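S1.2 Input.
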Amino acid sequence: MPVPLVLASTSQTRSALLRAAGLDVTVAAPRLDEVAIRDSLLAQGTSPRDIADALATMKAEKIAPRDPTAWVIAADQILELDGSLMGKPPDRQSAHAQLLRLAGRTHHLHTAVVVHADGRPVWRHIDTAKLTMRPLSATWIDSYLDRIGTLATASVGAYQIEAEGIRLFSRIEGDYFAILGLPLTPLLNYLTLREAITP
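S1.3 Output.
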């Protein structure tokens, strides 16, 4: 029997993906200091994949008590470059610096999704994509940032592959939806098997 679904995220991309797939979801914003949590876990030697999973779990647990009947979906994404992590650039200058670091190199996106129901996490999935960026000059990066405007600070790495950001890459290996921020296919398979959504 279908259950109330809550997305523990303010990401317009994640909510749009779920709604485009025919799901009726409510959006709730978890209040977490993600940067502090991420840095603390990294200092403890936690792997980037496990950091993404831990943050998704914390988001779900933050929202779940608001409605015990709901199933809460939470996700998180970590960009890893040679063992170091990147967050969303706070401004254009930071976006430029991130792109200069990523240019001509391969990085990984670790995307975790957790479903929380009946007072506990009942399912989780972690996906890792491998993305190789073309060599980019500082001038080209400036031109790109001029074109995309405020979108530069909307995502880690200052790109969206569903938009002009796709032009930055020479090779992408991994699940498209996971790169967007939500491993949609395994999530929908789980929700369907558990009859949380109609087939």
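S1.4 Remarks. The first helix runs from residue 12 to 20.
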